[in-house]
Amino acid sequence: MDLSQKGFQSARTQAREAFASQGLPEVKSEEYKFTAITKKLEQRITNISLAESFEISKETVDAHVFQDFDGDVLVFANGFFQPGVSYSTSDVSVSLLSEKPDTPIGSIAKPEKDPFCAINQASFADGIFIGIPKNMQLEKPVLLLNFTKISSGQVVQPRIWIEAGDFAEATFIELTVNLTPTSNFVNKVVEIKGGASTHLHYYRLQNEGASALAISNIETDVQKDSTFSSVVISLSGEMLRNNLSQNIVGSNSEANMYGLYLLNGKTHVDNHTNVDHTVPYAESNELYKGILADYSRGVFNGKIFVRQDAQKTNAFQQNNNILLSEDAMINTKPQLEIWADDVKCSHGCTTGQLDEEALFYIQSRGIGKLQAKGLLLYAFAGEVLEHIKNESFKSYCTQLVEDRLGAKF
Amino acid sequence: MLSIKNLHASIEGTPILKGINLEVKAGEVHAIMGPNGSGKSTLASVLAGRQEYEVTEGEVTFNGKNLLDFAPEDRAREGVFLAFQYPVEIPGVSSTNFLRTAVNQVREYRGLDALDAVKFLTMMKEKMKLVEIDQKLLSRSLNEGFSGGEKKRNEIFQMAMLNPMLAILDETDSGLDIDALKIVSNGVNQLKTKDNATIMVTHYQRLLDYIVPDFVHVLYNGRIVKSGSKELALELEEKGYDWIKEAANSEVIV
Q1: How many residue pairs bridge chain A and chain B with CB atoms within 8 Å of each other?
Q2: B112 at the A interface (CB within 8 A)?
Q3: pLDDT tens for residues A95-143?
Q4: Which of A61, A224, A338, B120 could be a cystine partner for B115, CB 3.0 to 4.6 Å?
Q5: Is A358 an interface residue toward B (CB < 8 Å)?
Q6: Predicted TM-score (pTM) of this structure
Q7: What single string gives the DSSP state of each residue in A97-146?
C-alpha cells in the first residue's frame, strides 16, 4: 500500500477488482487492437512506481503560459496540485480530492470500462476537485498546466473531478509540459459532472515530444439543456491513447467532440471516442481530422450509441485523413449502434492525399509547391481549429500548426 | 513574346497536340477556336504547366526562355496567367490571404517590394471595381459557393492583381450569361496594354464580339489548320466547323 494514496478506499478496492478482471490489454483485444500499449509499457516500465511531486518556480510557470492567456492558472507537478504558484481570480473552487471524500469518483469514468481507468482509480495519489458554482458563468478560461518530471519506470497519474452547478459556464484548457523529454508516462482520468443548462468547453493540446507515452480517460455526463464541447490537438508523442466519452443523460443538449492530429516521425495517436444518447432530443457532432507523415500511425474509433428511448437524436460523425507518405497509416472505424427508430445519424470517413487540382491552381498563381501544400494542409486542419472558441489558445495552436505545416502567410 | 514551335503533347499516351505553331507578340490578342476535342484546353494546360500532359516534341519560348523548363509557379512568376475554365473551390483558404501571398511571391521574384496589408487592400479595392466583384466574396474561402459567373469574374480579378504579360483565357465565356460576359470582357479589355498579350481559347464566336481579336486560329485534331483575322470567326459562326474539318481531312498528311 502506497502511503501517498489518500482516501477513497472503497473506490480503490472496486478499481483493483475491475483491473483484475480486465488485465492489461492483450494484442488481440478489440479496444486496443491497433495500439500496442501493453508491449510499450513492458518495454519501458520495469518496476512501476508513482512519480512524486516537485517544486515549480513562478518563472517556470510564467514561461509556459502561452501568450495573451488571460484567466486562472492551476499548476500541477506530476499531477500534484501546486497552490503556491497557481492563481485564480474567479469564483471557481479548487480543493484536493482527499478534502472531498464524498466525491463519487468512478461513477462517470467507470473503472470496469477500461483497464487504465481502473489502474488510475486504484493507485492515484491525490487528485483535484474543481467546482463551478451554480449560476456562475466564468468569463475567463481555466488553464490546467501540468509539469512532469519523471524517471524511467515511473508513472504520473493525474485525477481531476470537475463539477458544474446549474447554469454554470466554463472553459478548461489542458496543457502538459514535460521537463524530462526522454522519459514520460502519464495515465490520467478526468471526470466532468455537468449540471442542467451548463455550457462547458474542454480543450487539450498534446505536444510533449517524441517520447511521450500518455493514456487519458476523459468522461462527462451531459445534462438537460446543456452543451459540452471538446477539442483535442495532438502534435507529438510516442504513443498517445485518448479515450473520450460523453454520456447524454438530459434532453435538448449538445455534445461535440473535435480533434486534430498532425503526426510525423513514428508518432502514434489513438483517439477512441464514445457518445451515448440515452434520452431523446439531443445532438452530437464529431469531427476528427488527421494529417499523417513519415511512419506515423493514427487510430480512430468513434462509437455512437443511440438507445431505444433516444428518439429525435441527431448524431453526426466525420473522420478525414490525409496521408503524406506511403508508410503512414490510419486505422479508422466508425461504430454506430442505433436502437431508436426516429433519428438522424450519419458517419463518414475519408482517407486520401492532397487535391491535385487545388494544388495546381495555387501553383499557377505563383505560389511555390511546398507552400501550396502547406496552404492546403492548413486549410484542411483549420476546420478543427475553428472550434476552439478561446482566442488566445486558438492563436497558440494555430501558430504551432502553421509552423508544422510550413504554411506561413 | 511567345513562340510555339511544332508542339506535340500527349495525355496517358494519347497524342492530343500534333504540331502546334504559333507566334504571339506584345500587344496582340489571339483567339483559338475549334470543335470539341480539338485540343484547345490542352494547349492552355500545357502552356500553364499541368503535369498530366507530356510534351513529346517541340518547344515553347516565352520572352526568350524555354517555358517548358519552368514549374507552374515559376511560369506564373515569369508572367503567364491561366484563367481556368473550371476554377476549383478551395475551402479553408481565404481568398484575400491567398491572393496576397501570390502577389507578393510574384513581386519578390521580379525584385519588387512586398505589399503590406494596407497597400494590398488599396490595390484590391481598385481592381475589384474592374470586374464589379463584391468585397463580401473575397472575405470567404477561395471560390467557395461562388456562382459560375462569380468564379469567372474572380479569375479576371486575380489577373488584374497579378498583372501578367501573357493571359491565357480558357473558355472564359462558357457558362456565362450576357451580363456576366460583358463584365468579364470589359475587365479583360481594360487590362490590355501594348506590352502584354492575350490568348483566348473559345468555342463560340460570341466572346469575340466583346474582346476583339487581332488573330483567329482554328484548332482541329491537334493542329492549327487555319488562321485569319476576326472575320474568320464570323465565318465559323455562320458555317460551323464542318467545312474546316472537311478541308483538313482532305489534305495529304506527310
Answers
A1: 77
A2: no
A3: 999 999 999 999 999 999 999 999 999 999 999 999 999 999 999 999 9
A4: B120
A5: yes
A6: 0.86
A7: GGG-TT--TTSSS-GGG-HHHHHHHHH----EEEEE-TT-B-SS-EEEEE
